[in-house]
Every structure is written in structure tokens, then in C-alpha cells.
């Protein structure tokens, strides 16, 4: 019998993030944004921080690049920007919902591989393969192997993403490959490091903003729904909260514990822009 495909909690999280961000904040992207010193840290400025991030990112595209593969393209707005800058772009997007959004962003001018990067197959080779906050979702070895395979000789890999620092404890926030493990594995691949820029300081303010939103809005909304259900359906409510007590406890600690803040982020994570050239 064919097994039913499980819905990924990450994809559900990204979909909710996109729906809320686009509707309430007019956000264009799913990344953290980049906060320069002169931009006030305020949730209504997140859209501007995301624009700054895209400027920062695109300013690191090497000269001579013509073809780009945007792996984990989200809603396709980075791809759309790249197309407007004259690059020939293709995308990878495993999420049916985000692929649909991306399709609307880029129209028919760009191919979208609707699959995980690990499973992508093509004879095409690219000048640049970029991972904009998507590297963390892909198995490290497979991501490197596929990238070495799909790059033209002399082509570049551009990663802009969160990594975990080498610490005994793990912070409350999950996500990101271990940076030391990344460096070990990339050394065994045919890549030469061109740029390594730490932008943890410039991305961390978003963590505080998300934390505030979760604590001040997410938590009271959840509590109100909970109170309502306990009042109307006491028996079912008791049964469900008992059966899923561990999951509910985890969600409460992870999202509403007030711990997903910038200081923790800076302690346990390193957000890097990494540019590598594939040896010819
Ligand atoms: C945080 S979002 C970033 C989206 C977009 N790059 C942006 O900056 O707005 C992560 C993206 O990675 C994609 N993703 C997750 N797992 C993936 C995989 N195995 N292969 C390719 N993309 C993946 C998600 O569908 C999503 O588009």
C-alpha cells in the first residue's frame, strides 16, 4: 500500500509565516532581513530590512554570472529581483504552496523544480547556485554534492543562512547546520572560499521582533481559544490536552517561552554570507 506523505511542520510554519507576513506587514520574503545601523528596529520596518538584505545579497554576486539557481526560493521574490537585474534564473521549491506563490512572482519566464534539492535532476549547469536561508533545511552533504555537480567550472555557491556555533548546550532555537561541520565538509569538496561575512548582529533584531509578536499576540490568542474550548467542550478539551500534553508543552516552551530573543540567538548562532568558487 502506498504510504501517505506526511505534511512537514516546517512547511506549515513557512506557509503561516508567509501568509501573516505578506498580509499584515507587506513582507516580500521569508528571510530575517538585514538591519543597518540607521534603520529603527520596529516590526513595521521588517519589509525595509528585507529589502536591505536583498541589496546586501545581490551586491555579492560575482561579476560574469549569467545563470543562477535559487534553491529554496520561497515566494520567488528574490528570483524576480534577479530576473529584473538581467540574470537567467531557475528555482527549486519543494513546497506546493510556496511554488504557486513563486510561479505568480516570476511568471513563465523561469523554470521551477518543484522538489527537494536533494532530488533535483537536470543536465543544465549554472554560474551561481544560491541558498537564501534555505541551506539549513537541506542535508549538508547532499547540498554540497548537488551543488558541486550542478555548477559550471569556475561557478559560485552563495549561502546566506544561520549556522549553529560549537557549544555544549543547544539554544532554544533550532535550525542551522553546525558551522564547524560545514567547514569540515566543504573543505573536502572542490570549493575555494572567496568571502565569509558574519551578519549575526544585523539579522538578530528580527528574532526579538518575532519573539515580541509571539509573546504579545500569539500567546494571548492561543490562551483565548483554549479558554473558549475548555468552557464549551470540557470533556473533549481535557482529553485532548492530556493526550497531547508533551507536544503542547514543547510548543509553549519553544514559541511562547520568551526565550527566542536576540541575545540567545547571538550566543548560539552565527548568520553568515559565504561565497565559494568551484575549482575549474
Ligand atoms: C526560510 S525560507 C526562505 C525562502 C526564500 N529563499 C526567501 O528568502 O524568502 C526556506 C525555503 O527553503 C525551502 N526548502 C526547504 N527544504 C528544502 C529542500 N530540501 N530543498 C530545497 N528547498 C527547501 C522552503 O520551501 C522555503 O522556500
Q: Indicate the percent of residues in helices.
A: 40-55%
Bound molecules: S-adenosylmethionine
- Could you give the count of β-strands? 8
Radius of gyration: 20 Å
Strand residue content: 15-25%
- What's the name of the CATH homologous superfamily of the largest domain? Vaccinia Virus protein VP39
Terminal Cα separation, in Å?
47 Å
CATH class call of the largest domain: Alpha Beta
* Order of helical and strand elements: HHEHEHEEHEEHEHHHHHE
Regarding quaternary structure, what we see is single chain
Shape: globular
Q: How many distinct helices?
A: 11
What is the total domain count?
A: 2
Quick overview:
The protein is of the alpha/beta class.
Task: Furnish the topology, listing elements before pairings.
Layout: H1 9-25, H2 46-58, E1 67-71, H3 77-84, E2 88-92, H4 96-106, E3 112-113, E4 126-132, H5 140-150, E5 151-164, E6 177-178, H6 179-187, E7 191-198, H7 200-203, H8 205-232, H9 234-243, H10 245-256, H11 262-268, E8 269-278
Parallel strand pairs: 1-2, 1-4, 2-3, 4-5, 5-6
Antiparallel strand pairs: 5-8, 7-8
Helix pairs in contact: 8-9
The protein binds S-adenosylmethionine.
S-adenosylmethionine binds next to loops.
